[in-house]
Amino acid sequence: MKQAYIFDAVRTPRGRGKADGSLHSSRPITLAAECLKAIRERNNLNTQLVDDVILGCVTPIGEQGGDVAKAATLHADFHQSVAGVTLNRFCGSGLEAINQAATNIMSGQFDLEIAGGVECMSRIAMGSDGGALMIDPELSFKVGFVPQGIGADLIATLRGYTREDVDKFAIESQRKAAIAWEEKRFLHSIIPIKDSLGRILLDRDEHMRPDTTLEKISQLKPAFLELGEKWGLDSVAYKKYPRVESIQHVHHAGNSSGIVDGAAAVLIGSEEMGIDLKLKARARIVSMAVVGSEPTIMLTGPAPATLKALAKANMKASDIDLYEVNEAFAAVVMNFRDELEIPDSKINVNGGAIAMGHPLGATGAMLMSTLIDELERQKKRFGCVTLCIGGGMGIATIIERV
Amino acid sequence: MINYSVNKNIAILKIHVDSRPMNVITKEFLDTLKRHWEKFEESPQLKGLILTSERPEFMAGADLEMIRHITDPLECFNLAMDLQNLLRMMEKSKRPVVAAINGTALGGGFEITLACHQRIALNHPKIQMGLPEVKLGLLPGGGGTQRLPRLIGIEKALLLLLEGRSLNPEKALEMGLIHQLASSHAELMDLAISFIEKNPEASAPWDKKGYRLPGGDVQTPVGYRMFPGAMAKVTETTWHNYPAPMKILSAVYEGLQVTLEQGMEIEARAFAELVTNKVTKSMINTLFYSMNECNKGVSRPKNIPEQKINKVGILGAGMMGRGIAYSSAINGIEVVLKDISLEAAQAGKEYSVNLVAKLVEKGKLTSKEAEVILNRITPTADPQMVRDCDLVIEAVIEDRNLKARVTKESEDVMPKSSIYASNTSTLPITGLAEASQRPEQFIGLHFFSPVDKMPLVEIIMGEKTGDQALALCMDYVRKIKKTPIVVNDGRGFYTSRVFTSYVIEGINMLTEGIEPQLIESAGKMAGMPVGPLSVSDEVSLDLIYHILKQTEADLGAESIDQATYQVVTDFTQNLKRLGRKTGAGFYDYPVNQKKRLSPILFEKFPTKEHGFSREDLSLRLLTIQALETYKCLEEKIIREERDADVGSILGWGFPPYTGGTLSYIRQRGLDQFVKDCQNLEKLYGQRFKAPASLKSLGQKQRYLSV
Description:
The complex is a heterodimer of chains A (402) and B (706). By secondary structure, chain A is of the alpha+beta class.
């Protein structure tokens, strides 16, 4: 089997996912194409050599619909010979794109690919594409789906994480993200987004609240209390978890991932292609895994996915130097940390989606750029990216800095 | 069946299903309707057709006899499609078809009107329209799940379909169920005729070009918001024990994405699955047939003419006495409410004053009517006052000596023919009747708290109680619009005895180290109104303590569950945690917060590995109640299976989807139930031992078809 290498990884800054967000006027194809162009320019790439562009997108409808990957590829003026495919593994999409690209390379059938993702949440609302998982009565009665926030609250309840615990975690995410930006740790990967006149629309993650405090966010109202108690969705969880007396609704806008716009892209290829194009490999894909997990709580997939990837690589959790665990909700990361007994010093050292936002389809690829930058900065060897996924799944990828 | 006439070149069909006491859809009715429809089709000179009824009601629904015994889903599907196709044919007719709804139109009766081009209803507040099928475990099988959402939108339709709520004509117009109101029968027909004259061609909204589903399609953000919410509510209220609301949601979800014809088929399939489902069969048997039989008083001695009850005496104006006084007065009975002092009796009357005031506030009573009702209640401290009562109900505290005293006091002045009843919930009637001079006129009338809300009265026959007493009490219970069941005497009679078995089983689980919340969930998710620990707190732990203590004193240590006795002794005597009334029991009741399971439970009963699922524990909680009921049947406490079923559902909320405690055994399957008992007996001993006679239950009793 061939090895798959990451040669480059870029991302847009994350714009607040509302009408007043700085990227609201940028179309999905624009954000995705800016990343593709950056990959082309930074690596002097003859795009004809790229076999395929794989982009994750979780709400692939409207202007994000109909294979936005091919649309972005054309919009970035890549050669017409480059194919494009859009995939949807919910929040795991960006990493799934990387894994599929890597697998293609490892199989020897492909030589060079770009994997990434795009999500303009200010333009295409999350959930606006429906889906049987959420609304089909027969399926839903069988399985018992609740909104992810209730799943996260349930994790906190089962683990005994208090409101203060999750709020503290959120403040830490903000603090770490602020330091990372201050120390320009993301700069290598960030592609500032400009308008057609060349004026910068956004060059930093604008969702961050570096000056927020524990006291401030402790005032925020729980986001899923009403859905849970008034709309009856807690009952769906109780049916699956009859030992739980009362779900503690601890999550809110301040300790959950932010809704943002953004895109990311990663250049992946074989060793031979790297040599031919004189591309310096930055990391090697060591192993990868996806798992299905209990679908009602929905968000406990990262631990089993990581363990599965570790097992493939014959490694232990402690062998990994740095983890990027998507901060969908504070309790998701805390649960992962506690289940695998990983010290805080190894997890999300530059903050995460609570501070900077979670552009659904792109996040997995964004976390990859963050991880590689940080492995290089700390001169560490092994890293792991993992995300929880709707419907009850988890995904993980282990890389080695080279 | 249906009277067909022609007036002004309009066909008028007047429904009159002679073979039934009310207009309901029967096979003959369908055949007749089809024949008349064909006749109309063959008469092109006719301008349109009016469908109305000759009886006070339009149509009360479909005849349950038609589906009660069907076991073949395909047969049921074809039956539903027959009706559906006929209705669709009428709807597709170019000539206008008008429903002149002169009276209540429910279920299938209302579905027929939904297929008409115009619905005009007589505006009378007592007239009801709607699709209540879900209440009997069914879904509307005549196109109701398809036409109603197409008419008023998914969101509004789901509200009506899932709750089975019916509306009076004004509300129905407001919701868009009907088009017009008429103030008189004459106007009703005039409006119908004039619609036909003004609309030589008519079609349903969904058959018109450019039709849009009101409120938005299934696959829109509206649908994405609505369906998860509706599903969660169904889970919260049914724990998936009832298939009907789930099928209704699926039928709406699937049917609204395809043509009406395909939707009709989706609905008919779901209908067939439900009709042949055990849950539906049990619900129809108990909630319709058995309940009606109880309400009609089929257990009443036949040879005794109906008894007039003009005046009741109530001894004791506490919680129960005051509730009985209210229920009697509001149903036209004079009440003497007696207590130890006039003040105490007046305080008891205050209860009715408050309840009646609320009804006036809501506009359900005029202040004149309220005054009449309240004037019926005479508070007093004078035992002589019961001298002209037809019935005296004793509702003093559970103290044999006191009860004996008031019995004597009353019998001294009561008319010779009148009946004396005790509202005891625990003391055997035969024993109490020893204080009576005329035990054949002494009976038990067990009311449930709060009396004004609880629909059941358990009538207890003492050893010597005569038929006259029973007949009068049945007439009284029916007069106060409650449902009577009749049982024989025994400790705890029927309802208290079996209900207690639920509580005891829950407390036993606690002592076994099963997580308290899992015990509660097992009760709730089995379909009980609340978990066993909650209900223990509600009835109060000291009540359970006193019952067990008394039973032990009377019958010996073997006769009670010692594990439970120890727990309630500890909680009431040492910890002084008596339940909700003292703000502490198995739960803590913090002010202005939800109650929570007390941490003391975890101290007293450390959780152990047990390997039981919630479902295992639910099964155990239902099994003990069903088994205890069977023992009541065997001991002849239960006289009729029907009364056991109805009493369990109305008395302590045994889950209606089971059809009641005895129907549960049949729903589970006799062999399986015996196996359940054997498995549980291995784990918990004697109390789960199934009597040998249980195996023959299936052969001799009445609900065999379930």
